[in-house]
Design goal:
The protein has 375 residues and is mainly α. The chain is built from 22 helices and no strands. It is globular. The chain starts with a helix and ends in a 14-residue tail after the last helix. It comes from Pagothenia borchgrevinki.
């Protein structure tokens, strides 16, 4: 009996040993962290725990060029805390080869020569600066193309930072889209003298317009033309939509326009007037519009008021309720007054609110009342 038990235990030990031999190689599949990289990042006060949590794979790569990245940023004038923030958010930067970083520096400085501004861009858009070397030729060609349009350097810099994909692709694709925008502007009656400013404004407001197929712009303009908008009105919309006309499509616009017309109870001509004043009606989905109509009506605002000031639909229900409460303190009733006071950004509202506040506190001057004078 004892011999049987001993034999059984031996077999189990052999099985466990064999199993451990099979498991051990699996555990070594994950390479150890590159201690030089970890120590270099520690020395730069980088949040290693955050890097391990979000981009741990970077710490296992070799070679890494942490010192070279830090030296380049220091040479541009970046402070220690700024370097730490950049490498915490985008530790992949340490994998860029020194020659690659130097090329990027030269490319960026051709449109952004001031070191302080370039450091600010790298801090906010590190992935746009520390990019693949395979894109350098495309970047160079695209920079040359946009410079040939006499665009402001700040606009080109903003495009490179916020929409890097538009610079990493072949220049021919950007040429086609820019040409399409220019043709649309001219066909809608835009003045040649103002085209550069118009294009700069559109690209700065929505850099991603370059990444959209040119056909989308043509289809959307054709749909709006069929809805009765004149060429002048289409140019107005194209400018006011800030390039987001390429984010739309005929089907979604058809649904939102039908919903808005049915909810407001207006004619097609009135609907066009509403859209010209509040282009957001074109791209808000029905559920968002339904929520905002419901919120406005629930506080006593009439549909005729909304029709008169449709831009109030651009505000969330929460913002509308907050602003109404503040206005009520000074005796302003939006149910009987204009909704214009609700409109605009937070800064715009604060200015309107401040005027109402001063008006309510200002004493009424009585020209026949005796003046109080000291004896």
């Amino acid at each position: 009996m004892l011999r049987l038990i001993a034999t059984s235990l031996c077999l189990r030990c052999q099985s466990a040993a064999a199993l451990s031999l099979h498991i051990r190689p699996c555990a070594t599949l994950i390479p150890a962290e590159n201690q030089q990289t970890v120590e270099a990042l520690y020395d730069l006060s980088v949040d290693i725990q955050k890097v391990r949590k979000l981009n741990s794979w970077v710490l296992h790569q070799s070679p890494a060029y942490t010192k070279e990245v830090a030296d380049l940023l220091k040479d541009l004038g970046a402070s220690g805390p700024v370097i730490a923030r950049i490498l915490t958010v985008h530790p992949e930067a340490v994998l860029c080869q020194p020659e690659q970083m130097q090329t990027q520096r030269e490319l960026w400085m051709s449109v952004c020569p001031k070191h302080k501004e370039l450091v600010g861009i790298i801090e906010n858009f590190p992935a746009s600066f520390f990019t693949s070397s395979s894109h350098h030729d495309n970047q160079r060609n695209n920079i040359t193309f946009f410079q040939s349009l006499n665009l402001n350097k700040r606009i080109i810099t903003k495009l490179m930072a916020s929409a890097p994909l538009s610079f990493s692709r072949p220049v021919e694709q950007n040429e086609v889209m820019v040409r399409t925008l220019q043709q649309a502007y001219q066909e809608l009656g835009g003045e040649e003298a103002n085209m550069k400013i118009w294009l700069q404004k559109l690209l700065s407001q929505n850099p991603f317009v370059l990444l959209k197929p040119p056909e989308v712009l043509r289809e959307n303009l054709l749909f709006l033309r069929d809805k009765g908008f004149s060429t002048a009105e289409l140019l107005h919309l194209l400018s006011k939509l800030r390039g987001f006309v390429t984010e739309l499509n005929p089907d979604s616009m058809r649904r939102t326009l039908a919903y808005s017309q049915d909810t407001i109870g207006c004619s097609e001509a009135e609907l066009r007037h509403i859209v010209l004043n509040c282009p957001a009606v074109l791209y808000y989905p029905e559920d968002i519009l339904a929520e905002r109509f419901k919120g406005l009506l629930s506080v006593g605002i009439s549909m005729s008021q909304i029709k008169e000031t449709p831009t109030v639909l651009e505000l969330t229900t929460q913002i509308v309720n907050y602003r109404i409460q503040r206005l009520r303190v000074h005796g302003y009733d939006v149910r009987t007054g204009s909704l214009e006071v609700l409109n605009g950004t937070k800064k715009d509202f604060e200015m309107s609110y401040g005027k109402l506040h001063l008006r309510s506190e200002r004493p009424i001057f009585n020209p026949v009342a005796p003046l109080k004078v000291d004896d």
